[in-house]
Amino acid sequence: MTVDVSTIYLLDVETGESVEAELRDAIEQAQLDDWQTKWQPALLTVLQELARKGVPMSQWPQSWHWNWAQKTAKVQGLLAFRGFSVVARGETQGLAQVDLTKASREPSQAGKPLVYLDYLEVAPWNRPDFGPVPRLRGVGSALITAAVALSDEEGFKGRLGLHSLPQADAFYRKIGMTDLGPDPAYQNLRYFEMTVEQARTFLEGEQDR
Amino acid sequence: MKFERSKDWWMARARREGDAVIGAGLLALDPKPDERASGAQIAAVEETRIAFGKFVNLMRRRRGFSMEQLAQAADLDASELLVIEDDVHHVPEPRTVFKLAETFEVSQRRLMQLAGLAAANDAGFRREAVRFAARSESVQKLTPEESSALEAFVTVLSEQEPKRAK
Fold first, then answer.
1. CB burial class (10 A; 0-12, 13-18, 19+) of residue B95?
2. For the domain that residue A123 is a member of, what is the CATH number?
3. Is position B126 within any domain?
4. pTM of this prediction?
């Protein structure tokens, strides 16, 4: 399988400069290696810092009760699925996996095919909730853009569904997605959907000439 | 799939993102520990496991080891040591517990019990474990109190189990 590479631009928060990056329409072994050798140690550093400061575990971010082995196995399994990755400065900055077999739930388009965003995660050093560290901004947006563009290309007209992480709810509302509420089948993560109309606005919104 | 937009278009997207943390799906949420058995049973296991985590932490520091150094000395993964010391929900691998017992020169059987991987016959053992956990604090340097609590507990860990009654 050949990988299509699109040139995109991210924002370096520290300098305010733009950073050229690659949007790749695949997750390859190099990305999984980055996840294991760079993302995971970066997460551990955050953990160690919290432990060093004597912050009790009960006050750590909710997602810290991990089963590392299980997560690693699942991430390694991403190779088998259709996905996207953002690469900049020689490192994987974000990963997403999509599923093209699901149907819409939003009443105006219920039952119609959509791109379901099964997984989206940005590198720990790009996450503003992990402390005031220099980071690239725009990685998550780029991955969502890719999923919407894929939906368009597949003839799904931009329809997109996803289960949001609690800290991301506000963002999905901001980009115009419809909030269909907590889904008990997904640990009560809120399910969001983008309609054809919303997708059109999302993709063309601020397009220059 | 190719997707071409101008630099300005992408930069506007990046700016709009602001300080949002973007993520989706259960895998990004990170898996929860495995489902566990009944409440009371869990509480007992976790009580001793707190002691297990503290024990590993104090023994490591007493030797002046970083997690990496202990990992190397015991032929273990530093990431597992981290969760052992800090997450009472983490169920350690038997091999890890054996390696730690070997490194710290305490009874493998006792350490397995402390880690919740084996049941102890004597209630006294659990009491000792809880007392130990309650006495030790997680601070940078080992205080004299921690040192003596640790010494006493090492003795308990080295003792044989009492013979079964009857």
1. exposed
2. 3.40.630.30
3. yes
4. 0.63
